Amino acid sequence: MSGVTNYGALQLLNASLSNGNYSFPSAMYLALYTVSPTASAPGTEVVSGVNYARIQTVFNFAVTGPPVHCLGPNAITTFGVATGSTWGSLIAFGLLDGPSNTTSNLWYFGPLSVPRTINVGDQISFPINSLTVSLG
User: Fold this and answer.
1) Mapping DSSP to helix (H, G, I), strand (E, B) and coil, where does residue 9 land?
2) Rg over CA atoms, the chain
3) What count of other Cβ atoms lies within 10 Å of the Cβ of residue 59?
4) Is 77 helix (H, G, I), strand (E, B) or coil?
5) Residues 39-91: pLDDT tens digits?
6) Is the sign of the CA dihedral 17, 133, 28, 42 positive or negative?
């Protein structure tokens, strides 16, 4: 089951219930994980430097449930070919508000329906609407 992190929940509540102005992130980035994040733990993202980088992505509008959910990405999303060393066994994805670890926060996470090991020379692609983020 996918979920929202504590950070993401805090931002959503502040945006919808507080009287202050709130600016949502200008973009979200798809990341891949070898250890799944949780609401309170960041998980283990694929190591940079092996031709891995987060990809800016957009999900579709939420639909009613239960649970309420968004499907995405809204375009085929393909990561680079692994070079140098393996990326490991990918088991989860995350959506972050920045392209790098030093400037971003994890908002949402979820399991990959089919875990996949990415070795040198391999590549992974996500078809349209192949990932789901749910609330409730």
Assistant:
1) helix
2) 15
3) 19
4) strand
5) 999 999 998 778 999 999 999 888 887 888 888 999 999 999 999 999 999 99
6) positive
